[in-house]
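Throughout our pipeline, every protein is held as a single compact record rather than as scattered files. Nothing more is needed to write down the fold, since each code stands for a local backbone conformation. The record that follows is passed on verbatim for readers who wish to inspect the format.
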Amino acid sequence: MHDLIDDVFAGTLYPDQAGPLEDQARLPLDAIATLGDRLAFTTDSYVVDPLIFPGGDIGKLAVAGTVNDLAVGGAVPLYLSCAVVMEEGLSIETLRTIMASMRRTAEQAGVQIVTGDTKVVHRGAADKLFINTSGIGVIRRGVSLGVDRARPGDVVLVNGVLGDHGAAILNARGDLALEAPLASDCAPLNGLVDTMLAACPDLRALRDATRGGIATVLNEVAQASGVGIELTEPAIPMRTEVKGVCEILGLDPLYLANEGKLVAIVPPEAEAAVLAAMRAHALGTEAIAIGRITEGPPGRVVMHTVLGGRRIVDMLVGDQLPRIC
């Protein structure tokens, strides 16, 4: 275990570590305090199957997912932990590949992986590899984002096509034998959030639309703010391949998971500026407005369909696709 930690984990994730490894990370408070006045802390566990999929892997997913959870709260992500549970028999090369992916993604996001843990369990006690990452960030002064801050007249924006991650994971499992070119949208979004907050520090809310998709996120906003939300179906960006997978399986693409997409609630006067800032960033080139906040009925999300009708978009009940993150 000592050799494994030195070689695969410490040697890959923080090769420039000076001095002995301790049982905790020691972080400079003065540097943290210069960035903001509140700490943001989050944790998440990743059990995706398969471990490596088009567009990413469980390591990239773990870093990007935790970074995004911090970023959509208005925080500057700084430090991550990495704890892994490995099943006996996991290939060292697979583990090395995933750790290298974690390091690349952390470097891309500008965060450091500063502490971690490893555990090995008997064959059959886990499914190859599970990862838990926790993250610390600093919330900028003057920024206050929350799902309870939406107001009638606000605009609902997304930064691009939806449902790619959920569809790609499903296709990667091989059950459908589809030849569709589907890849996960997995990516750290903190750089995109930086540009959006620079354009409008008074954004109402940001959420990354992971499990439950945009439908679940918007229901949470509507319920917490006591407002209605009206969506326009033709405006919702989605690949033809993703729609096709959903039609074959009877899934609703609005509930598919995303790992590189966010939902933004924006004051109407800032819509143009925020959209321009998003489209100028590599992860927001296809940003678009998909709906608006209304006075009610409170807590209800309604879709204006391509056929001219209306349908209620309810909170997800159950889980359409298990183990997608």
Q: What stands out?
A: The chain is about 30% helix and 25% strand. Residues 29 and 122 are 40 Å apart (CA to CA). The two ends are 27 Å apart (CA to CA).
